[in-house]
Amino acid sequence: MSAPDLDFGLHIETARLQEFLAQLLRSQELMQRRQDELTSTVDALLKKLDSGEHGIEEQQQVLQKLQSDIVSLSERLDSFDKLRIGEKMERYDSDHSDIKTFQSQISQLDSKVGSADLAHIGV
């Protein structure tokens, strides 16, 4: 083989190696992009998972507060019912006392009217 043939063969092999290296570089860039995409996807999933766990904790806290508020409201309603029952009993006692007083006044008036009728008749 002569020197020019060797140079031409070397030139062809160099071109093939350059093309191969270019393909390797493109493959490496593609793999790097895919790795970056996967990394960002994993990061996004981790954030969602973290916020989901945080959201669950917040929901549990809200539920606990609601349960506490329901218990408090139930206690207040019980107290209010007892108060209303007490007020109704007081009104009943007051009305009953008024009725007794009214009946007593009617009895007194009846006896006065009866005495006046007897005095008027002359008995």
What radius of gyration results from the CA coordinates?
52 Å
Structural class computed from helices and strand pairing: mainly alpha
Q: What's the end-to-end separation, in Å?
A: 172 Å
Helix-strand string: H
Task: Report on the biggest sheet.
Answer: none
Tally of individual helices: 1
Estimated share of beta-strand residues: under 5%
The coarse silhouette is: rod-shaped
How many distinct beta strands? 0
Which runs of at least 5 residues are low in confidence (pLDDT < 50)? none
Oligomer: single chain
Average pLDDT level: 86
Proportion of residues in helical segments: over 70%
Keywords: Coiled coil
Coiled coil: 56-83
Question: Your description of this structure?
Answer:
The chain has 123 residues and is mainly α. It has one helix at residues 3-121. The longest helix has 119 residues, at 3-121.
